[in-house]
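A favour between colleagues. Tell me how you read the following sequence-structure pair.

===
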Amino acid sequence: MAMARYSYTPEDRLGNLFWVDGLSRADYQLFRNANLYFGLAVLEDESGSTYTWLLKNFLDIMLGKSPTVVVTDGDEGMKEEFKKCMYGKWHLDEFKLRWAKMVDTFGLQNNGWVNIQYARKENWASSYLMDKFFAGFRTTSQCEGINNYVKIFINSRHCLLNLVTNLERVVRDYRNNEMVAQFKTIYGEAVLTTGLTNLEHSAAEAYMKEIYGLVKKEIQVVVALELIKDRSISTTLIYKVYHNENRDRLYTVMYDRNDKNIKCECKRWNSEEIPCRHMFCVMKQEGYKEIPEKLILKR
């Protein structure tokens, strides 16, 4: 069942539209930190009141659950409304991460704009975002593919009825692509090439084909890694992992023998939610035949 919220100003006949269907609402309860269509909106302007209308309707329809991360283009009005409506949620400003190099190159240490951006560094600097999950998104430009996809189905000449009908087509077509990807995952045969056959087979069964490709790359690197058992703290073993061509860069990996959990300081698991090469190195050392359940999200 589809649900739409609509508001308009009688004087100028302009209006705002927010559309969502039942499956999107159900998906959001499980996957609210992932890259899916949860709703589509058409707004008459970019004023604070319009953003407030959208955010309040979004939260109401989604049973009061806020998204875990918000990515914007740095618009101050939008950011303030997010703070009001979704207090406490992590906000990421789109900002070029070459900021530090720019400061050094052009001598902008005393520039007021630069100082303001530095004060907001927790919202854009990579070092502060390593343990935050963005489903691969770091800038709004990465959403352009989705925006262009939507534009295939809608245009400015559509009346309200045609607009809502075509929004349903957008989501239906997008979900069909997901079904095709899932079909290929279920009925396709993974080619095992890393030498860690059991772990690779476990990854092939746990992940969809596209994500499996990323995980496989992490497994392939294990052959070039070295591992040192550093110390034990109760049931936790602490390992140091390094690449055999760069012994100066050590990554600390903690492995709890009781709950079978593995944590790595590189934080790839936190930011991408797939096990990193250092984790796989520890799994190899500990004789794992499959990826621990705690490292596979129940999507």
